[in-house]
Amino acid sequence: MFDNINCTVIPSDAATDAGVAGAGVLLSFIITAGISLILSAVLILREITRSSHESKVVRKLLLSFSDQQVITGIGIQCVGLAKMEFMVPYHFFIIWMLSLLSTATHIGTLLALVQDFKRDWVLRWIRQFFMFVNLVLSCVSGIFLLMSTMRNLSQTLPIACVWQVQSNGAASNSTISVVGTIAVISGNCIMFVLGFWYLHVKERPWLKTIQVLGLVMSAAIAAGAAVRVILLSQAFGKPSVDLRDGGERDWSFGQLLPMLLLLLPLVSAVEIMRGEMRVPSIKDDEISLVESHQPKPYGQSSFQPNPFWGSSAAASRWSK
Fold first, then answer.
1. pLDDT of residue 286
2. Nearest C-alpha neighbor of 80 from the set 66, 100, 94, 101
3. For residue 274, what are the contacts with CB-CB under 8 A and spacing of at least 6?
4. Region Disordered: start and end of each range (predicted)?
C-alpha cells in the first residue's frame, strides 16, 4: 500500500500544511468547542434547576455548532489519513487533537440535548453514525501515532513510514507518550459505548450526576487538547519539528473560511427569534410518542423507536 514512499532518506525539515494546522483552522475548532460546551452547561444547569425557560435559541445554536464541529472533525481526519504518504507526525498529531475537540463537543451536546435525540429516531441514528465514524477515524489515527512513538519515527518522515522503518529505540519520554495515547484511545471507546447507552436507556435515575460528570470530563478533554494544539502548533506556539517556512501563521481565504462558518449558527438563531424557523418544545415533554398522555417524571423523555428493527408495537403506535 505504501510501497512508493521513500523512508530511507530523512529530510532536514518538513513542509508546512496550513490546511490542517493553520491559525484559522485551529481557532475555529477551539472556539466552536468552547462555545458548544458553554451552551451545554447552560442547558444542563437550566434542566437541573427545572427552569421554565425552554431555551429554543440556545438549543438550536448548540445543535448547529455541534453538527459543524463533528462534520469538520471527521473531514479533517479523512484528509490526514488520505495524506499519510506525505504528512509528518507533527501534523498528524494536531489532527488527532482536533478530533478530540470534536469528540468533547459531541459528548457535551449529547448530554444537553438527549431528549431531542431520543424523541426523533432519525436524529438519534445520524448522531450515532457520526459518533461511530469519528471513533473509527480517531482510533486509526491514534494507532499510527502510537506506532510512531514506539518506533521513534523521525519527525520529518511521513507518518506512513511507521510500517516500513525499523525501530530506532525508544525515546526518553516514550513511556508517557505510549501510556497517554493508549489511554486516549481507550477513553474514546468508553465514551462511545456510554454515549450509545445514554441515548437508548429509558430509565435514568442518575441523570444529574451523569450530566455534570460528563460535562466536566468533556471540558477537561477539550481544554487539554486546546492547550496541546496551541503550544505545539507553529501558528501559536513552537512546533516539535523544523518547518520550511511560516505558512501556518499566514492568514488567507482558506483560514478565514472556517472562521466565517461560525456565523452560520447565528443566522439560524435570528431566524428562530423572527419566527421563521420552528424548534420543538421540550416543556413537559409535549411531543408524546406513545399512547399515554400522562406527564413523565423529571429526567425521562419520550422515546421514538427505530421503525425498522425497534419495538414493532411501539412503532405501530407511533404511526397512528
1. 39
2. 94
3. none
4. 293-320
What is the DSSP secondary-structure string of 183-250? HHHHHHHHHHHHHHHHHH-S--TTHHHHHHHHHHHHHHHHHHHHHHHHHHSTTTS--SS-BSS-TTT-
3 state SS of 22: coil
* Residue whose C-alpha is closest to residue 13's, from 90, 78, 99, 77: 90
Polymer length in residues for the chain: 320
End-to-end Cα separation, the chain, in angstroms? 54
Give the separation between CA 228 and CA 72, rounded to whole angstroms.
19
Contacts of 206 (CB under 8 A, 6+ apart): none
Contact 162, 247 (CB under 8 A): no
What pTM did the predictor assign? 0.82
Closest residue by Cα to residue 306 from 103, 129, 107, 70 = 129
| pLDDT at residue number 246 | 82
C-alpha to C-alpha distances, 231 to 32, 210, 240, nearest whole angstrom: 19, 32, 10
Bridge partners of 243, per DSSP, are 14
Cα angle 305-309-315, degrees, rounded to a multiple of 5: 40
Sign of CA dihedral 136, 190, 71, 87: negative
Q: What is the pLDDT of residue 285?
A: 44
pLDDT averaged per 10 residues, the chain (length 320): 70 86 92 93 84 74 89 91 88 92 91 82 84 91 87 84 73 75 88 82 72 89 93 88 85 87 81 61 43 41 63 43
Q: What is the pLDDT of residue 207?
A: 73
Alpha helices, DSSP H, located in 13-120: 18-21, 23-48, 56-82, 89-112, 114-119
Residue corresponding to grid cell 438550536: 60
Cell of 111: 448530554
Read off the C-alpha cell for 127. 448522531
